[in-house]
Every structure is written in C-alpha cells, then in structure tokens.
Amino acid sequence: xxxxxxxxxxxxxxxxxxxxxxxxxxxxxxxxxxxxxxxxxxxxxxxxxxxxxxxxxxxxxxxxxxxxxxxxxxxxxxxxxxxxxxxxxxxxxxxxxxxxxxxxxxxxxxxxxxxxxxxxxxxxxxxxxxxxxxxxxxxxxxxxxxxxxxxxxxxxxxxxxxxxxxxxxxxxxxxxxxxxxxxxxxxxxxxxxxxxxxxxxxxxxxxxxxxxxxxxxxxxxxxxxxxxxxxxxxxxxxxxxxxxxxxxxxxxxxxxxxxxxxxxxxxxxxxxxxxxxxxxxxxxxxxxxxxxxxxxxxxxxxxxxxxxxxxxxxxxxxxxxxxxxxxxxxxxxxxxxxxxxxxxxxxxxxxxxxxxxxxxxxxxxxxxxxxxxxxxxxxxxxxxxxxxxxxxxxxxxxxxxxxxxxx
Length: 407
Ligand SMILES: Cc1cc2nc3c(=O)[nH]c(=O)nc-3n(C[C@H](O)[C@H](O)[C@H](O)COP(=O)(O)OP(=O)(O)OC[C@H]3O[C@@H](n4cnc5c(N)ncnc54)[C@H](O)[C@@H]3O)c2cc1C
Hints:
By secondary structure, this protein is of the alpha/beta class. The protein has three domains: 7-115 and 237-305, FAD/NAD(P)-binding domain (3-Layer(bba) Sandwich), CATH 3.50.50.60; 128-233, FAD/NAD(P)-binding domain (3-Layer(bba) Sandwich), CATH 3.50.50.60; 324-406, Enolase-like, domain 1. It is built from nine helices and 25 strands. The strands form seven sheets. Strands 3-2-1-7-18 form a five-stranded parallel β-sheet. It has a five-stranded antiparallel β-sheet with strand order 21-22-25-24-23, with helices on both faces. A four-stranded parallel β-sheet has the order 11-10-9-15. The N and C termini lie far apart (60 Å). The model has no long low-confidence stretch (mean pLDDT 96).
C-alpha cells in the first residue's frame, strides 16, 4: 500500500510563506507543499519596494527570493493570482477564487497585513505592483503629498526627495514615526528631511481634498493650502484576519499563536505579520511587522509543522533607511524604568538603550551608514542573556559592549 502524502497548504505567498515552505522541505521530502497567493509574483521581499527599487538601485526582479526553478526543484507548488476566500476548519478545506474545497492536513496562515486607507484613490504601498505604479507616477510628478509620517511614508519621502521632487509630509502625531521612537531620534530624522527640503507638518490632518484634472488642492488643519499631483497614504496597517472572523480561530490583534506558532485550531499554524505570538522572553503576546521576524517566524512555523517542537524566542529587530540614515530597533522599547543614551548625534551613531531592573529590554539607534549596527546587535544579545549593566558603562562610547558578553 502506498503511504498517503501529507498535504501542507500555505495561505499567502510572502516572506514567511517562502521561509516556511523551504524549511518544511528540509525535513520532509515526501509531503505536498502548496503556496496560494493572490499576487502574480513569486515570493519576494518588500523592504526594497520603498527604497532601492524606487531609486533604480535595485531591479524589481532582484527582490524575488528565488526564481521558478527553486520551486520546481523543491517540489513546492506555487499558485498565483488565487485569492483565498474561505476556510472550513472542521472539514479541513479551503475555497479560493479559482478552486473549491481544497483539502489540507496542515495549514499555515501567512496572509500578512494590509494598509489602512482613508481614500482608495490615493497611492498605497505594500506590493511590488503598487511600488511599480508609485515609481511610474513619481517620475512624472513634481509635487508629492505624503499622508503619514511613519516608516513607509518617510522612506517614500526620502526616495521622492532624492528624485528631486517637492515633498510635503502630513503627520497627525506630535513627532515622526510614532511615540515608540525616542523623541531625540525622531527629531534627527525630521531635521534630515527638512534639511533636504521636505516640508514636514506635525500635529496636522488633511481637512479637504479637491481633485482637479491633473492636480489636487489640499487643505490642511494647520490652515496651509497645498497643490500636488500625487498623494501617497501611509497611515499604518492591520492584519489580514477578516476571513476568520466567525470561525474557531482566536483573533486578537492578529491570529493568536503560542510559542510554537500553533493557533487555537488543531493542525493550523500562523506566522509573520498576521500572527500575534506568545513571546516567552517578554511573557506576553506581541505582533511584529518586520522583515527579520517574518523570516524567522516562518522558519519556526515550518519546523513545528514538521514536529520539531521549536520555541520561537527571537529578540525583535527591524530597520529603516532614509537618505544616508539607518535606524534600527531591537527588543521592546516600552515598559522600561530608565533609558541611557550612547553617542550624541547620527554622524557618530546615537543609541537609546531602554533598561528595566538594570537589564536592556530594548534599544533604538540612528546612524549614518553602518555606525550603529554592531551596538544594536550587541544590545539584542545583552538583552537575551539578561546581563545586568550600569548606566555609565552603556553611555561610555569608548567602552566596547562585546566585553560585557564575556564577563
Ligand atoms: C513597502 C514595505 C517596506 C518594508 N520595509 C521594511 C524594512 O525596511 N525593514 C523591516 O524590518 N521590515 C520592512 N517591511 C515589513 C516586512 O516586509 C513585512 O513584515 C513582511 O513582508 C511580512 O511577511 P509576511 O509573510 O507575514 O507577509 P507578506 O510578505 O505581506 O505576505 C503576505 C502575502 O499574502 C497575500 N494575501 C493576503 N490575503 C490573501 C488572500 N486572501 N488570498 C491569497 N493571498 C493573500 C498578500 O498579497 C501577500 O503576498 C516592509 C514592508 C513593506 C510593505
């Protein structure tokens, strides 16, 4: 009798999907692995879409993890332009825009997150196709309005400015990039943009937009009136969970999963942007939207699907690049009792370490080029190893932090 092949279905074809599928194949050469994606492209990484691709420093085709040969060689089925429309967890079947009642033995949900939108007619950036459309329009635009001063909005502002466009950013908060970023670092980023000629409006909302044939007239809450030929909105995102609203899957700011990427439903796993996962180090659930997390969480989900029982305990890390500035965040920059500053400016590298009970719980740094990478990485390690520190040592730029790891 021939052994029945296990049918592993992966919903969503982004970063976590790619890493999970590759990992599953490492352990299991027999199972049927299928990725279902609503996009037309093979899995690709998104960070260059708001940076290098817009500036012609990278081709869109170079964003793909691998070409079609990889999927064929590893016998990973990739179904593109197929929207997942419903999941029946009881019968273990899913419906898509192209097929009905596709069975699975194990299901991995990696549908990512989507942009919040106040107006469908504005440009939004999440996918490769959207990046291509933005690039095309940016090139023929002179005046660009960006609604939202978060990472994506600012990276787009940086790219547009480097393409010699007049850029205006409208942010309703009192600082750029949200309150999680230290005010001093947010100010450095703001000054960089302003120094390049970008107009930043904080504590400001868009009140009214009139669309003319070739341009928009926009009224802001700070009484300014501006004209622009392109509006891009980057006002945050939310997990793609609406498919599961009336199902047994527990949803709470994303799909709730434990430290093994397991959801509340048997044989169903979730990872990446869509998952609100239990982190044993912080002893709480967190949801992250970051490149490294999507990769590592996808790998971990793949291992657990294959019965490897691996706990996910990666220390969070993410970055943003704007002009020559590199910003990095690690750990959690909240619930701290004090913070320490290392360095004074972006040129030499400035890092804020967030401390609780004399241990690092998070760090946020900004530097020109690669100035802060090493110390932020060391902050992750010191945090993971729960090493007790003094403020003086952390603040002392001359003291090499790696010495603390060997003490
Ligand atoms: C423009 C941009 C720039 C970024 N830059 C950085 C950065 O500099 N640093 C950093 O750390 N992180 C960055 N990120 C975040 C990082 O790319 C994401 O966290 C990561 O891609 C999440 O991976 P994922 O697999 O969870 O989701 P995704 O990669 O978003 O994949 C989800 C996939 O599921 C598909 N899908 C959704 N619904 C359905 C459905 N019903 N049926 C079928 N398919 C569906 C989506 O179309 C998508 O292809 C950036 C993100 C974007 C959008």
